[in-house]
Amino acid sequence: MPHLARISGRRIVALSAAALLAVTLGACTSSNPAEPPTSAPETRGPVGPVPTGLDKFYGQGLTWGECAPYATSDGAKSAFRSSTLRCARLTVPLDYAKPDADTITLGLLRSKAEGQRIGSLVVNPGGPGASGMEAAAGLASRGGELGQRFDFVGFDPRGVGASQPQVRCLTDAERDADRLDDAEVDGSPQGVAKTEQEEKDYAAKCDERTDKHEEMLANVGTRDVAKDLDILRSVLGDKQLTYLGYSYGTRIGSAYAEAFPNNVRALVLDGAVDPEQDALESLIAQGQGFGKAFDEFTKWCALRQDCALGANPAAATQAYRDLVNRLIDFKVDVGDGRKLSYGDATIGTIQALYQQELWEPLNTGLNQLKQQSGGTLMKLADLYNERGDDGRYGTTLVSPIPRRS
Q: Which domain holds residue 187?
């Protein structure tokens, strides 16, 4: 498999309900009935200790209403359709060192518990920047025992999704053009210099296009999100936090536990990010993980008569390279006016390796590529990049850089 830099596992797959139930349901019970959604401000007052100067944030009320106005992508529009979901905005300081200065808002989504309620289960799917609102809506659609005992609550972290202001860098057209450019596969000094300049240009556009850019970009880190999470806990009326985090969401969870150890009820961290692992070690470990997933895909594929990579799993990696590497010089048509690049073929493959349900379309896409067609692989890449059918992109700030195999 090609090496991929700066890729985060940000897709929610099947929830391990048994593991979560073991941690959460056995801890305590409550006879409080689920409260009906309301359009009036829901206020409780601060719950638990309040850091100095943050009383107005910890004690604020939330006004829950329809979720449709919060949808910022095709995926969100689909996820927010259920009438049982309610959304609101949480106000937090832009800079926690200046709580009396500018504020920003976070998008929230809640699905109320249907039975004897224990409390809130706050969800973050990683990214960085993937929508916790969509993740919570997905959990709510599955129901089950968790939905009987917990409110599912998702939040879009500061700067992304329904939260305001958004961190804005590239336009949709610029994202399309950036994906078509495979300059990153050039490891020559000239190629490295070009990539570095493109990265600087990208950062400059973020600075230019983001509202309140100077302070906003300086205060979108994990520690800020962890502080936002404690305000959310208090406003939801929970004395302690029950939290489910995936991938980068596990880093948010561990940062929260470090900052607010007495406010933790239960944490479930799936696909945990090692906070002591440096960037290079993380990339190596991630590449090894994708390699193992690719090996499993090739074993599955080899049993099929239509396997795009052949019947010998030992030869599948080279077959994949031979098929995909030629896209560096010769792009193929997708059918909507775009062309499939090496980077998109690689990202489409990575997307499919997250869950076995996508192995079938991956094999279809690789077979299509043999026929100089890139439609299915592009759809997989669009899924990863959160590009809707209307050409608009989501706000997850993931910047994968494919390297030549």
A: 172-209
Q: Which of 126, 115, 147 is nearest to 13 (CA)?
A: 126
What is the amino acid identity at position 207? D
Other CB atoms within 10 A of residue 356 CB: 13
Tokens of 300: 């599955």
Number of neighbouring beta carbons within 10 Å of residue 222: 17
- Are 105 and 184 found together in one domain? no
CA distance 241 to 237: 10
59-95 pLDDT, tens digit each:
999 999 999 999 988 888 889 999 899 999 999 999 9
Strand, coil or helix: what is 88? strand
Q: Is residue 5 part of a domain?
A: no
pTM reported for the whole predicted model:
0.81
Give helix 248-259 / helix 222-235 axis angle, nearest 10°. 70
Whether residue 392 lies inside any domain: the answer is no
Distance CA 269, CA 258 (A): 14
Please state the domain count of the chain: 3
Distance CA 263, CA 275 (A): 20
**Integer CA distances (angstroms), 85 to 108, 204, 311, 383, in order:** 10, 38, 47, 24
Cα 233 from Cα 237, distance rounded (Å) = 7
Residue 121 shares a structural domain with residue 193: no
